[in-house]
């Protein structure tokens, strides 16, 4: 009864802490993107796309190599995730067979099997989410690699914004896949006990807060990017013709097409 009580209280408390943190992070990204690294990186990527597509014939090789590196990173994470899913499935099937053969009673077997199955299934679910998110990331990066080097799109503001949205969506899915890896750490420690999981959830939330929010260095970098973007505005204005940059806005990383939030 004591172990069941700890599992019920500490596991749900740890998940509640991580859930509250990610709800706060999502709200901050939507309302104040520049306070988070995710929103700041989305702004930098969009400025990068605008700079690359101002002269795609000159910057095409750099763009393709940069996007290829992102595709390779997503491919590696997706491969690791699906491999771990296969290993966890083998471990679960083996443990189930051993427990069924060595169980003292049916009730003990059912209780232990249920708890163990929930633990392994939650870990398996994290890696499945990581795999799917990284596959989607590869998809968006592949589309972007074709469009970012198209010379016919360099004078079309709407086309440049569309390419930037696809790049940000690919990076957003990559962040979700990596976040699934982070969530799997407390679930791994749940195998050793609910106390380990609760401590890991609190520690992981603190570490993620430090990684997800902007600090002195990122604020200085943000100022530098803004100055550089302002200096390049005149040249990009000439490349876009009468459209200019006054109608161009940097979008939130949670891009859904029309009605994007302005950063």
Automatic annotation (TrEMBL):
Keywords: Membrane, Transmembrane, Transmembrane helix
Keyword presence, Transmembrane: yes
Lineage: Eukaryota, Viridiplantae, Streptophyta, Embryophyta, Tracheophyta
A Pfam family annotated for this UniProt entry: DUF599
Coiled coil segments of this chain: none
Top-level taxon of the source organism: Eukaryota
TM spans (from-to): 6-27, 76-100, 120-142, 188-211
Record flagged with keyword Iron-sulfur: no
Protein name per UniProt: Transmembrane protein
InterPro entries: DUF599
């Amino acid at each position: 009864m004591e172990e069941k009580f700890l599992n019920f209280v500490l596991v749900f408390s740890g998940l509640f802490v991580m859930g509250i943190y990610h709800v706060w992070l999502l709200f901050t990204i939507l309302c104040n993107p520049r306070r988070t690294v995710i929103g700041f990186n989305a702004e930098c990527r969009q400025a990068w796309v605008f700079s690359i597509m101002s002269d795609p014939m000159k910057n095409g090789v750099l763009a393709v190599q940069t996007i290829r590196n992102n595709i390779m990173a997503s491919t590696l994470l997706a491969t690791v995730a699906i491999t771990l899913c296969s290993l966890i499935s083998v471990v679960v099937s083996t443990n189930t067979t051993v427990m069924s053969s060595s169980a003292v009673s049916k009730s003990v077997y059912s209780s232990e099997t249920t708890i163990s199955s929930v633990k392994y299934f939650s870990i398996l679910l994290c890696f499945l989410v990581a795999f799917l998110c990284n596959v989607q990331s590869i998809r968006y990066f592949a589309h972007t690699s074709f469009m970012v080097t198209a010379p016919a799109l360099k004078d079309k503001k709407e086309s440049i914004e569309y390419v930037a949205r696809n790049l940000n969506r690919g990076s957003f899915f990559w962040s979700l896949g990596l976040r699934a890896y982070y969530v799997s750490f407390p679930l791994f420690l749940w195998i050793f006990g609910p106390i380990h999981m609760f401590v890991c959830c609190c520690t992981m939330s603190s570490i993620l807060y430090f990684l997800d929010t902007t600090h002195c260095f990122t604020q200085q970098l943000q100022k530098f990017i803004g100055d550089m973007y302002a200096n390049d505005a005149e040249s990009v204005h000439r490349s876009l013709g009468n459209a200019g940059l006054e109608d161009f806005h940097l979008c939130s990383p949670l891009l859904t097409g029309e009605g994007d939030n302005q950063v």
